Protein 1
Amino acid sequence: MVRYFKPVVFLACLGPLGLLVWRGLHGGLGANPIEFITHSTGDWTLIFLLVTLSITPLRKITHFYWLISFRRMLGLYAFFYGFLHLTTYVWLDKFFDVHEMLKDIAKRKFITAGMTAFALMIPLAVTSTKWAIRKLGKRWQALHRLIYFSAAAGVIHYIWLVKADLKKPLEYAAVLAVLILYRLTIWIASFSARTTKAHSAQTESVVTAK
Amino acid sequence: MRIDSGVPMLIKKAEDIRSSEITPKRLYVNRRQFLAGAAATGVAVAGGSRLREALAPSMTALAGNKINGIKKSQFSTTETITPAKDVTHYNNYYEFSTEKDEPAELAKNFRTRPWKVKIEGAIEKKLELDVDEIIKMASPEERIYRHRCVEGWSIVVPWIGFSLSELITRVKPTSKAKYVEFTTLMDMTQMPGQRRQVLEWPYVEGLRMDEAMHPLALLCFGMYGEELPNQDGAPLRIILPWKYGFKSAKAIVKIKFTEKEPLNSWQLSAPREYGFYANVNPNVDHPRWSQAKERRLGEFLKRPTLMFNGYDQVASLYSGMDLRKNF
């Protein structure tokens, strides 16, 4: 069943890009096409990051464990749209002027945040293969926790770049906060479960010792 | 079971495959339609209302009334005029929306008549004029001005109006009048963006008296040969081509002559980023982005920003002023 869904999801994820291309060919990018493309690719990067982060909570709540098989694809699409967003900036905004870009990264906080968010996705994309998962073992899980920091940096990038209207950036922040809170709750709950186990084991040993 | 090669071959028996893994016959037979449908749904969901908009592209023609007797102006530039379609569908008009493509739709039913403008403060006599009385004060001119947004994009628009000084001299300001303050309409029923405090409403802008009296400062009520479209600031606005676009207040309902410098809305919102003067200046960056270059809509490459947006004739207004401090 999942096997049939995968190509469907793959195609659907290309939808935003396809729509951009279609609009580009039909004059639907508005008066400032480069700004439109920058905003659109930025939005989709964040959307895919948040969707990727919601797979595990969804799995646990719905018991649709097969959702996990889509997580890598969605994560890589976040990287893909992030790459498109970065390319738009590097090429269409800065015209490959490295000096200007370095000045931007150093001086303009929101660019620093954006670059950080993208940089953090690179090791994740590189280690997304089955080979890397096997090779890294336990360390893979630890490394891939970077996605939280990437998503956070992305949200901060958005907050720091808007002129006055914080509505959309804060909406993304709220979703990210919920997803992180969910993880924290699970983590704290597992921690106290372990402690309870340890205590009951201790009590047992005291009882048996008597 | 063995084959001649000596490698054991695994043949899966029917019961190895769970019945839940068997594709329903209906789905299998219609799999191609299913895939196409799912993909289309995905795109439609992703595109949403934007797809609708893309399929019915924006109108080119302005719907306003034609203005007669327009004179040409010596202040007009010969640069390429931005297409009206862009100027009417790319608007920073937060009273309606913070999305640039929304004011065109949201301002469709905005009522621009009857429209009264209060003129008060340090003048001979307090007035309340009908906008059509104001429009008749002087003959309309076409002023093709460069218009530079603080965000870093620019356009060239054939505005219609006359020098603000025409109105000012007629209302006879007293010696106490050092500044002019402009206030935009406050009406949450017509302007949905005002229901949120994105900026403090109503929108306020201001000029020093000598800036307001400069021939370049335009009292504007039309563009492209017609009355202003609603999303472009109808029925009455000011245009200050040497300043960032946010200074050119729209939908004016009050003009007040004051002794103290007005606190304009963007300065109130972010004093470190937006000042009172807001003169176009490639040497003074916005704290968060550079002002050295701009994107002229319709052009691919960015062009260098000019001091005072190329209107050097205003330089004398600021001689001796530190424009880094007075940004």
Protein 2
Amino acid sequence: MTHLTMETLLSLREAGLEPGDASAREHLDACPICRTELERLHQRVARLRALPALRPSRDRWPHVAARVRIEHRARRQRMAGLIGLAAAASIAVAALVRPGSGTVAAGEREIQAAMARSQALESALSQYHAEERMLDGRTAGIAQELEDRIAQVDRELEVADLLEQQSRDNQVLKLWRERVGLLDALVDVHVTRASNVGL
Amino acid sequence: MESYLLANAESVVARARAGDEGALEELYRAFEAPVYNLARRICRTTEDAEDVLQETFFEVCRSIGRYREEGSLWGWIRTIAASKALMRLRRNKYRDTDQLQEDVVGHRREDTALRMDLEAALERLSETSRAVVWLHDVEGYTHEEIAGMMGRTPSFSKSQLARAHQRLRRWLGEEVEV
């Protein structure tokens, strides 16, 4: 008589039926050796579960807490950096506008408008103190994703600054508009949600 | 494993999300022991297990805002711990010691029931086999979930478990006499 393999015995312990389980059960009914094997398997698993819990010899919380504090500080600095970048870029664009020309090129005006809008949104977020407020998991995930994308746009803005005048203006305008869109979404996530739930 | 419950979990999680360090420490104190136990059962050394404990709670503190409260808090933390422990195994790439035993000693010793105790037998399994045994038989993960965490197939998880039980049975002197 061919006895059941360990893999088959294990599959008999699973909730769902696997192909061949029915014939394996028939064999089990007729074979005391396989029944003993299955019983020993049950007992072995029960003993595994009953092994004593192992405990750490050292308290690792101080290390975790220190890393968390560093991470929070870095995050706050990143947020402050975003606001600073917008202000600096605003000054840079103002300097691009030729003095005495009386009129500002249409592209530059659009860039300035996008930057002003971006600053206003950042200012709103800053006054709102989003970092100190509680978000549910899904909302926090969305906010984190938006912040990451804004950081990516900022990096692209730095690169765009190195381009030739004409292509730089086009690229900068595109990026500032994207930035405004992302900030709009971030404000929606924080402020609209808060007003909905009365925070 | 629902015995690892935090009495006032909802309020602790809410305060932890708001960045309250006291609440984060409460989470640590509540789940430190089960996380360490899981890590130690999977990792080879106490140092690795303590590192996994630290990495797990750093991740918990960073990601508590993303915890969706769909499953139990312990279930969420346990999955982070299991992933960190498996990552540690991949990084260390220990030699599978039970395989080494097979290579060197061959089947001669199989005739002799070694009669180890369960702790020693578990320790003697390869890293991968031990991880599968612990995650499946003790923590209750399915083969599909284990395969997902290990980046392998469910069949791999099943065959690892079967091989591990064959070895445990032999080492514990539990083979049924025909």
